[in-house]
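Please describe the entry underneath.
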Amino acid sequence: MKKKVVLAYSGGLDTTAIIAWLKETYDYEIIAACIDVGQGKELIGMEEKAIASGASKIYIEDQTQQFLEECAWPTLKAGAVYESKYMLGTSIARPVIAKRLVEIAVAEGAEAICHGCTGKGNDQVRFELTIKALSPDMKIIAPWRIWDMQSREDVIEYCENKGLTLPWKKEESYSRDRNIWHLSHEGLELEDPALEPNYKKLLKMTTTLEEAPDKAEYVTIGYEKGIPVSINGENLGTVAIMEKANELAGKHGIGLSDIVESRIVGMKSRGVYETPGGTLLYAGHEELEHLCLDKQTYAYKQVIGIKFAELVYSGEWYTPLRESLSAFVDVTQETVTGTVKLKLYKGNIIPAGAESIYSLYNEDIASFATGDLYDHKDAAGFITLFGLPMKVRAMMLDQVKKGKDE
């Protein structure tokens, strides 16, 4: 009986070639596993394509809701953004995908898990760290670190020589990763940071600013404990609210990021990311936090967000530190409940009001008029004590100066 390998299968260029390569290189039964986290039309014909390429069977499993609830929402609540621009769309999907790969491999009695990540990329780290955390004895096969092919062009030629049908042209062979949260683009002219992307050709989820509506649109988002639950007064399920957010934000050209980022393996790389709905939901969440979190908690949570983003980006989801940070974040979100109104226009998200029963804004205190809760005269004593260290230092410097002058 042949041993089995489970292949993380996308139906794209790399995994199409990998099935043929695995059959040449190992005496394995190849089980393809496509984990659906919102790839949409990319899944059409997936089963036929995998079997035709040489897989003995394929799993196509919808994990979209799990992806959002287990990874996207915790990252949203943390306010985590990598290097100020990347909203972690690929990064947060990997723990869910890798976890399910392990479960399938165990159920099938497979000896190994194979992935199509390159030896220069981030995803090899993300997949393998998750596999090690959940199944430390599982064998991992990474063809890009073994075979002789050095470029996407080499892989295209390999597929053509094997008679494998590729549904794209060489000049359009961007490296893309899509899920319900985002769509990433790498390769071709994007490898030159000096070149502006051809957005009209590139974008799939987001309208170009030139083609976005000339009229602004208002949207109201409801949150419960930091999690989005409604749009424009309509309570929606997890997946439906993400789809609606993508539709609204994408129409107005929102959520586009062009970044030269620092990869885990040490190099810089350039990517273009479309995250329309995620950008919208982040913006609403932040406005609500401004209303509901006290100064110290909000300030420290910003520090946590940076570290959280680094952990997610580096594939360290299943670690005590990430879990501990999520526990901290969950406590801060207990009062992040309410509604936020936002104005969408030509790539911009403009705050238009927020409400919450947990609002820390008190008009009686904040108003310019003197009220019972705030006496202007109290500010004098506060400033005297608050500024005392600066005053003492100034007095000391003045004495030292006088001493030198004497």
